[in-house]
From TrEMBL, chain A:
GO biological process: amino acid transport
InterPro entries: Bact_solute-bind_prot3, Solute-binding_3/MltF_N
UniProt xrefs under CDD domains: PBP2_BztA (cd13692)
Family: Belongs to the bacterial solute-binding protein 3 family.
Entry keyword annotation includes Cell cycle: no
Identification of the protein by name: Amino acid ABC transporter substrate-binding protein
Residues covered by the Solute-binding protein family 3/N-terminal domain: 34-267
UniProt cross-references to SUPFAM superfamilies, sorted A to Z: Periplasmic binding protein-like II
Signal sequence extent: 1-23
Keywords associated with the record: Signal, Transport
Domain of life: Bacteria
Organism for this UniProt entry: Devosia oryzisoli
UniProtKB/TrEMBL annotation, chain B:
All residue ranges annotated as the ABC transmembrane type-1 domain in the record: 165-355
Keywords annotated in UniProt: Cell membrane, Membrane, Transmembrane, Transmembrane helix, Transport
Example GO biological process: amino acid transport
PANTHER family reported in the protein's UniProt record: INNER MEMBRANE AMINO-ACID ABC TRANSPORTER PERMEASE PROTEIN YHDY, MEMBRANE COMPONENT OF AMINO ACID ABC TRANSPORTER
Source organism (scientific name): Devosia oryzisoli
Molecular function (Gene Ontology), one example: transmembrane transporter activity
SUPFAM superfamilies in the cross-refs: MetI-like
Protein name, entry field: Amino acid ABC transporter permease
Location in or out of the cell: Cell inner membrane; Cell membrane
TM region positions: 41-65, 77-98, 104-122, 134-157, 163-188, 200-225, 237-256, 344-365
Superkingdom, natural source: Bacteria
Assigned protein family: Belongs to the binding-protein-dependent transport system permease family. HisMQ subfamily.
From TrEMBL, chain C:
Lineage, opening ranks: Bacteria, Pseudomonadati, Pseudomonadota, Alphaproteobacteria, Hyphomicrobiales
Gene Ontology terms, MF aspect: transmembrane transporter activity
Subcellular location: Cell inner membrane; Cell membrane
Protein's recorded name: Amino acid ABC transporter permease
Membrane topology term: Multi-pass membrane protein
Domain ABC transmembrane type-1 span(s) in chain numbering: 91-384
Record keywords: Amino-acid transport, Cell membrane, Membrane, Transmembrane, Transmembrane helix, Transport
Domain of life: Bacteria
SUPFAM superfamilies with a match to the protein in the record: MetI-like
Example of a GO biological process term: amino acid transport
Species name: Devosia oryzisoli
């Protein structure tokens, strides 16, 4: 009996944490002192532990920005790595406060799962990777190919759609775990590996000989990847959304991690509003007025995060493309802070 | 009395010792070349060994790259196992993402566990009762606070960072400790005279035993959050632990039931005649005899649980196997054709050592406890 | 004193709470109430959660188009197939690998179990090493090992090993020609069926004769002759013929024929290797359980060796072997769910994996998956109970 009681006590202390059902998420987060952020099990450049086992990546930076805005501390965040199958339940059950895990924004997810996408952190599209030696130049040459796919993703449906639409046949090999998908492709089980083209680039960079593999030019789907929050809490949704916009706005205004302190003295009214020198933009969100200053100070702006994690100088080497600011030919666009 | 027909009048010459009943030659004749078929099998077996052993030896030892070697050595044409890779990543394999400057905490937990378990396992060591309480009650609590932190100024390290062998061991030690009493209760419930309790236990046991662990873990990770009131969260680690424990307890229950059925009815009746109540009958008379019968079964369930912890990757946890797989794929500086094979072999050897140890210990205990039931 | 005359004691008067019967009822009521409350609580929570997430429930999704591809299927499958077809495909794939695994692991397991008891030192040591190694390593690890070992060992498509009869082996699996019987071939099946009925009749007759006259009849040889003879004769007479769909190398892969993908091969192989080590132990225990006196008694009755094994030893050993053997078969079937990890399209992969994710119907999909395994298990238990009742020792 005593043992049973003790084990219950252990179980309770191990992590049966109840949070009030309808309390504001922000209050919860402030009370526990950190943001719980759902990420992948490891997609280089997006969310992956580095050699010191510290989580890095563009999606991780978003979570850190959120933590910085709330706590003025980019490390006040804890990461939960989730499989693609459990990510939405984890979010809607409150296990995590925000999901930032290469998640594609689709209508059914937005409307049927009790979750809300805050924006598109990364415009992506599904592509195909093949071995150079096979001499394939277009995805239309792929009829009859064996394709490695991760289970439970939009990728699986897109591939079937694309091949059906082009009257081609294929043979799919579906794994529950991303690692096995890549390994099976690498070992020659499949002719083609398909997923979001950014992830293709990330995986290619990890191969022993990246040059033996090419990514085909066709992009067969729209994959807007963005952070997700639970539906129904407008305040938290706005914090999530404006954290993302602040990252963009800072880049557009040329405010970087290194010059943000000088910029506090800037005469540009837009910069003044962003950094909280002028106007009251933080408090209505439930944050302080220097919320965006904190973000940039700790994490940097969108462009810096992009260059640091997936940009052309990293092993992943992705050009900005669609993800450039609207002023530079891309479609990343933040509404004005005013 | 009657006539004795024959009385030997002199001693018979002592006969020579039988030809080779001992010594290596006789042993060989008896065990290797008893018949033509046997000889054939022996030769086939030796050929098989000759075919298998040298390459294995070369892979594991002869051409293997030991700590101190570089990745270039591992990439060499006929290099064997790349132990240098294991050596350089060993911290991740054992502790996962655990903060590197805090590794003394899991180490202390390992050490405490060994210090408590070894005297518990040696039959002659004194203070069994105290030791058991320490190991089963105090140790888990101390270990939890040591690992998780948050008290005495220890830094908080959440369960998400636990990984590798640490997770495998915690899951199996706690799982075995909890599933055993749970299994005993279920087995007693299954034998109960009360129809409601009996039905409940039978349904639970049969349902759990019928489905694969993987679906139970799926349930724990995907469906459990739906079953709880909104906003309640259960730690991932705890969910996996509950899943594995419930699964094993159903198997334990069936093992224990086998033992209960082997106890003659007379024992139940005699115990009742002594005026003992139900729990006294069970704990002092029936269970000690029944459990002794089923030690191998219990240990087999424990071994199965230990191996099953490798499935927690389904809920995204990094146990030993998953940690090895992670490094196999992500340790770019160690990429070579033998790296991942070496990783798998390392994991296999660790699992094997623990399971084999457990099974040998069970055989030892079985012999020791075999008190006079031999007929 | 008068009470003694009644010849029986009235139940001793005890307080209401100490009466075991009433106590039992109270316990049960308490347990039942707790259980019902608990279930109601779960249902209520689930309903609230689903409502909050704006999720729909129900099994209507089964009649929706699946829209994804399944790599290996015994039924015709396209992206336009329905979810219930995916469910069937998953079940069939699970059963296929389970049946193949059971077949081979039984053979290997019996061989190893007997080998471990062999008086030959080398043979028994080899068997022991095999059993003790394989048993103590997690199956999942072995599956990863075998799958990637198989992949690495096989040649690329263009360098396929060519086997006799237009068969090929490469990284994409094993390709063999697919037989296509023509319309006349139905007669061959009919012939085979008749032959099988004939064999049963023959056995019945032979046993009757043995019991009546003590004369033996070579049943086995006659049966084989009957099976082959009748079938071949019908084949010739009906003029049935079989053509073959031969696999041919296309741009990427072979097309046509029957393809056994490496996921299937690795899973079946891994399951066989793993389960055989457990079956071997079961078999060993069964053989050891037959008392030596039984052998001696059979010999003293004058039974010849083959009859002694067939009529005395094996039936007794089987009584010990079969129950654990069945549970090993069930374990193998359940373990086939690990195929999801190496990309084999079995039930858990297809239905609890892909279908669950594309529809979001977690409860429905997992419940249906569990129901399949539960049904298999209950069916097996029922058969086992029947078997146990049949072979039970009837004592006194």
């Amino acid at each position: 009996m005593q043992k049973a009681l003790v084990s219950i006590a252990i179980a309770a202390s191990l992590g049966l944490g109840a949070t009030a059902a309808h309390a504001a998420i922000l209050d919860d987060v402030k009370a526990k002192g950190y943001v719980q952020c759902g990420v992948t099990g490891g997609v280089a450049g997006f969310s992956a532990p580095d050699s010191n086992n510290v989580w890095t990546g563009i999606e991780v930076d978003y979570c850190r920005a959120l933590a910085a805005a709330i706590f003025d501390d980019a490390d006040a965040v804890r990461f939960t790595s989730l499989t693609s199958q459990e990510r939405f339940t984890a979010l809607s059950s409150g296990e995590i406060d925000v999901l930032s895990r290469t998640t594609t924004w689709t209508m059914s997810r937005d409307t049927q799962l009790g979750i809300s996408f805050v924006g598109t952190m990364f415009y992506d599209g599904q592509g195909f990777m093949v071995r150079k030696a096979d001499g394939i130049e277009s995805a239309l040459d792929l009829s009859g190919a064996a394709i490695c796919i991760e289970s439970g993703t939009t990728t699986e449906l897109n591939a079937a759609d694309y091949f059906a639409a082009n009257n081609m046949e294929f043979n799919s090999v579906v794994f529950v775990d991303q690692d096995e998908v890549v390994k099976a492709y690498e070992d020659g089980r499949c002719d083609v590996y398909t997923t979001d083209s950014s992830a293709l680039a990330a995986e290619r960079s990890k191969f022993a000989n990246p040059d033996e593999h090419i990514i085909l030019p066709e992009i067969i789907s729209k994959e807007p990847l963005g952070p997700v929050v639970r539906a129904g809490d407008t305040q938290w949704f706005n914090i999530g959304r404006w954290t993302y916009f602040a990252l963009l706005e800072a880049e557009e205004l040329g405010v970087t991690q290194s010059n943000v302190d000088e910029m506090l003295g800037s005469d540009n009214p837009a910069i003044k509003r962003l950094l909280g020198v002028e106007g009251e933009f933080g408090t209505p969100l439930g944050l302080t007025n220097d919320w965006a200053y904190r973000i940039i100070k700790h994490v940097g702006n969108y462009g810096e995060s992009y260059d640091r994690n997936v940009g052309p100088d990293t092993p992943i080497g992705l050009e900005r493309g669609l993800n450039a600011l609207w002023t530079k030919g891309g479609i990343q666009y933040a509404p004005p802070i005013r | 009395m009657t006539d004795i027909g024959f009385v030997r009048s002199h001693l018979e010459e002592s006969r020579p010792a039988p030809h080779r009943t001992s010594g290596p030659l006789a042993w060989m004749q008896k065990n290797l070349f008893a018949s033509p078929l046997d000889t054939g099998l022996t030769i086939l077996g030796l050929l098989f060994l000759l075919w298998v052993v040298p390459p294995l030896f070369n892979f594991f030892i002869g051409h293997a790259v030991f700590p101190g070697g570089t990745v270039e050595d591992c990439r060499a044409l006929n290099a064997g196992a790349c132990w240098a890779y294991i050596y350089s990543e060993i911290e991740f394999f054992i502790y996962g993402f655990y903060d590197i400057d805090q590794l003394w905490r899991p180490n202390l937990v390992f050490l405490l566990g060994a210090l408590l378990l070894i005297p518990l396992a040696i039959p002659k060591a004194p203070y069994k009762g105290l030791n058991a309480v320490l190991f089963l009650v105090v140790y888990p609590i101390v270990s939890y606070y040591l690992l998780a932190g948050g008290v005495f100024g220890l830094r908080v390290i959440t369960t998400e960072k636990w990984g590798g062998l640490l997770v495998t061991l915690i899951l199996s030690v706690i799982g075995i400790t909890l599933s055993f009493p749970l299994g005993v209760i279920l087995a007693l419930g299954r034998q109960s005279q009360m129809p409601v309790i009996k039905t409940l236990c039978v349904a639970f046991i049969e349902l759990i035993r019928a489905v694969p662990l993987i679906t139970i873990l799926f349930m724990a990770s995907i469906m459990l959050p739906l079953f709880m009131p909104q906003g309640t969260t259960v730690d991932k680690f705890l969910r996996a632990l509950v899943g594995v424990t419930l699964f094993t307890s159903a198997y334990m229950a069936e093992v224990v039931r086998g033992g209960l059925q082997a106890i003659p009815r007379g024992q139940y009746e005699a115990a009742a005649a002594l005026g003992l109540n139900y729990w006294q009958r069970m704990f002092f008379i029936i269970l000690p005899q029944a459990l002794k019968h089923v030690i191998p079964g219990i240990v087999n369930s424990a071994i199965a649980l230990f191996k099953d912890t490798s499935l927690v990757y389904i809920v995204g946890m990094k146990d030993l196997l998953e940690a090895v797989k992670t490094k196999n794929d992500s340790a770019l500086e160690w990429q070579s054709s033998n790296t991942s094979t070496t990783g798998y072999i390392f994991a296999a050897m660790v699992f094997w050592a623990f399971c084999f140890g457990m099974s040998r210990y069970s055989i030892f205990m079985e012999r020791r406890l075999n008190t006079g039931h031999k007929r | 004193m008068t009470t003694l005359d009644t010849g029986r004691n009235d139940a001793p008067r005890v307080s209401f709470f100490n009466d075991p019967v009433i106590r039992g009822i109270i316990y049960q009521v308490v347990v039942a109430v707790i259980l019902v409350t608990f279930i109601a609580w779960i249902i209520q929570n689930t309903a609230a959660n689903l409502a909050a997430q704006n999720k729909t429930t129900g099994f209507d999704f089964l009649w929706r188009t699946a829209g994804f591809d399944i790599g290996f299927s015994l039924l015709p499958w396209s992206r336009a197939s329905f979810y219930w077809e995916a469910f069937l495909v998953g079940i069939l794939n699970t059963l296929l690998v389970a049946v193949i695994g059971i077949f081979f692991s039984t053979i290997l397991g019996f061989t190893l179990g007997i080998a471990r008891l062999s008086s030959n030192f080398i043979v028994s040591s080899l068997a022991t090493v095999y059993i003790e190694t394989i048993r103590n390593i997690p199956l999942l690890l072995q599956l990863f090992f075998w799958y990637f070992a198989v992949l690495k060992a096989m040649p690329a498509v263009r360098d396929s090993f060519t086997l006799p009869f237009d068969s090929f082996i490469n990284q994409r699996g094993i390709y063999v020609p697919r037989p296509i019987p023509d319309a006349q071939f139905g007669w061959v099946w009919v012939g085979l069926l008749l032959a099988i009925i004939g064999v049963f009749a023959l056995r019945h007759w032979a046993r009757k004769r043995l019991e009546a006259t003590g004369q033996r009849f070579p049943v086995f040889l006659t049966s084989v002759a009957l099976l082959f003879g009748v079938t071949a004769a019908v084949w010739l007479i009906s003029g049935a013929s079989v053509t073959f769909d031969v696999p041919e190398l296309q741009r990427f892969n072979f097309r046509g024929g029957v393809q056994l993908p490496p996921e299937f091969v690795a899973l079946a192989f891994g399951l066989t290797i793993y389960t055989a080590s457990f079956i071997a132990e079961t078999v060993r225990a069964g053989i050891l359980s037959v008392n030596r006196g039984q052998t001696e008694a059979a010999q003293s009755l004058g039974l010849k060796d083959s009859d002694r094994l067939r009529l005395v030893i094996v039936p007794q050993a089987m009584r010990v072997i079969v129950p654990p053997l069945t549970s090993q078969y069930l374990n193998l079937t359940k373990n086939s769910s690990l195929g999801a990890a190496i990309g084999y399209a079995e039930l858990v992969n297809v239905f609890s994996g892909t279908a669950l994710n594309q529809t979001g119907r977690a409860i429905e999909c997992i419940a249906m998956t569990m129901a399949v395994y539960l049904t298999l298990s209950l069916l097996t238990s029922a058969i086992m109970n029947w078997y146990n009742a049949r072979v039970r020792l009837v004592e006194r």
